[in-house]
Write a structure and sequence with these properties.
Elements lengths: L1 E5 L3 H13 L3 E5 L2 H10 L4 E4 L8 H11 L5 E5 L4 H9 L4 E4 L4 H12 L9 E4 L2 E4 L5 E3 L2 E3 L3 H12 L7 H8 L10 H13 L8 E4 L3 E4 L6
Parallel strand pairs: 1-2, 1-3, 3-4, 4-5
Antiparallel strand pairs: 6-7, 7-8, 8-9, 10-11
């Protein structure tokens, strides 16, 4: 696995580089947003770790620019800014996860592993609802034969909805399963990402699969309108 770490704190860089390399990861480092931008847009990485308070180009701006060019690379924000607004802003710009400093390396490693985890060859699962198809190994999503590009977090959300198709899922359950046990369920990030999904898998088509159940949560119906 190849990681890009964009971080300007030397101590943090030294600790993370050593820790991830001991786990078998290849780590490239950028100490400011401009260098991070160049590396992220020129190379392929399995996950990108971004600080927010970076010189020249901050993490929010960099996250947005990366996401415009690459809809699938997992992006994890690693920062001392821990308010709900900070987190929601990052998720809305395309981040897939958010870790607040100080943090335990074991937790960060687990989050990176979750973002980069891929099904082993031969264990692919096709999840289907109506004319929507998702392959858990290739990460390919199609509706009515049309390829749909999703971010890592959008893919995880859609996979959860498909695994529980025709079941109403509460927002706290979705937040726990897609983001983490420690995710602040008081934010509207679940609603924001549901809207992102709807824009890609429902709005371009004649029928909507994702439905809101007022006061309860969301459901992906195998038969639209049921």
């Amino acid at each position: 696995m190849k990681l890009l770490l964009v971080e300007d704190e030397l101590k943090v860089v030294a600790i993370l580089k050593m820790g991830f390399e001991e786990e078998g990861y290849e780590v490239e480092v950028a100490f400011d947003g401009k260098v991070g931008q160049h590396l992220a847009l020129q190379n392929k990485y399995d996950v990108i770790l971004l600080d927010i308070g970076l010189p020249y180009l901050n993490g929010y701006e960099l996250c947005e620019q990366i996401r415009r060019r690459d809809a699938t690379v997992p992006i994890l924000m690693l920062t001392a800014l821990g308010t709900t607004d900070n987190k929601v802003d990052a998720f809305q710009l395309g981040a897939d996860d958010y870790v607040v400093k100080p943090f335990a390396f074991r937790e960060l490693l687990a989050r990176v592993q979750a973002l980069t985890r891929r099904a082993s060859p031969g264990s692919a699962v096709e999840l289907v609802a109506a004319d929507l198809e998702l392959n858990t190994h290739t990460k390919v999503v199609r509706r009515a034969g049309q390829l749909i590009t999703l971010t890592a977090r959008e893919f995880a959300l859609l996979q959860l909805l498909l695994l529980h198709k025709n079941e109403v899922l509460a927002r706290p359950f979705i937040a726990e399963k897609v983001w983490s046990l420690t995710f602040d369920t008081g934010t509207n990030v679940v609603d924001v990402y549901i809207n992102y999904l709807r824009a890609k898998i429902d709005k371009p088509f004649a029928t909507a699969l994702i439905q809101t159940v007022v006061g309860m949560g969301y459901v992906l119906r195998d038969e639209p309108g049921v």
